[in-house]
Amino acid sequence: MRRRQHVSLETSIIRHVAGGSSSSMGFKERGRVFSSIQELSEKLETVKYVTDSVTLKVIYLAAQMQKPVLAEGPPGSGKTELANVVAFAANTRVERLQCYEGINEEKAIGKFDESLQRLYLSTQNGSASADWSSLRRDLHTLDFFQEGPLLRAILYEKPCVLLIDEIDKVSEEFEAELLEVLSDWQLSIPKIGTIKAKSKPFVVLTSNEVRRIGDPLRRRSLYLRFEHPTIERETQILDKRTAGADPELHGQLAGFAYALRGYTLEKAPSIAEMLDLAEALKILGVNKITPELRDVLLPLIAKTQNDRKRLLLRDGFESLVYDTQQHRRGLGHDGQEELVCRERPRY
Hints:
The chain has helices at residues 9-17, 37-46, 53-65, 79-89, 105-108, 114-124, 132-139, 149-155, 172-184, 215-219, 231-241, 247-261, 271-284, 294-301, 305-312, 316-329; strands at residues 69-72, 94-98, 110-112, 145-147, 161-165, 186-189, 193-196, 202-207, 222-225.
C-alpha cells in the first residue's frame, strides 16, 4: 500500500505566503541539523516569522541534538506556529497529533483496517495454497494498518516535524506511552511488533498548562517559554504579516491587544486573532480604533458571552481604547517599551 503524505493546512498557507518556493535547506543526512543558524534565520525571515536569538538557537540545538522542544505558555501565544515554520525552514511536512482528554493509542498510532482485511480474505477464498497461518501473517502487517500521526512520523524516509499539540490535555498514562517514541524512536504495536524509526522527526510539544507535564518528558526536552508578545514585538508581527496596512494602525492594534489581555477576559485574544482584526480593519478602510467601532469589532475580539457583556458595558470598550492610547504613549521614540509596558520575560 502507498503511504499517504500529510501536509498541514497551516504549512500550505505558510508556503503560499513565502511565494511557494522550495527550500534547499533541510535536515542533513541522518536527519539531524540545519546547515547553520544563519540559514535557519534567513528561512524564518522568508516566512515572516518574528523570533529572537534565543529561540533561534534553541531550534538549532534541538535539531542538532535530536531533542524535542517543549513550548509552554498561554493559548494563542504562537506555540503551534513554531512547528509550522520549522517545517518550512527544513522543507518538510508536519505530522500533527491533536491531543484531547481521553485520546488513546488507536488515535495516535493507528489501527488495523478491518474492511481491507475482510476484502483480502475474500480474495483468498478457494485458494488451494492458502492456509491460516500465512493469511494471519499477511493480515497483521502495516499493509493493513491505518497509520496514525505518531507512526507516520517515524516511517518517513526524510524527517518530518512531529507536532504533539496541547499535550497537557492527555492523561499521565498516555504521556508515559509517548516516552517510547521520544526516547527509543520506536513504537510497539500488538500483532505486528516493534517498529523502528526510519528517521527521527523534529518534535514540538505544546502545552497550555492545563496540567503540569511530567518530569520524564521535561528531562528529554529543550524548554521554550512563550508569552503573549509585547507591544513592540506584536507591532513587528503585524507589520510583517499584514501587507499594505497602515504601520501606525499596527502600533495601535498592538497596544489594543495588550490592553485586552490585561482586561481579565475569559479568552484573551491570540496573535492570530489580532492578525484577523488587522485584516478586517484593512478591508473596512479603517485606520484608527475608536469607541464607535465597538459593535463591529466585538465579533472579532469577544468570543464568549461573558466577555461580550463586559465589553458592552458603558465604559468597557471606551476604557480599552483609552488604555490603548496610554500604552502607545509608553513607547519611546525608538520604538522600545518604557515605563508603561516593560518587556515580559519569555524564558
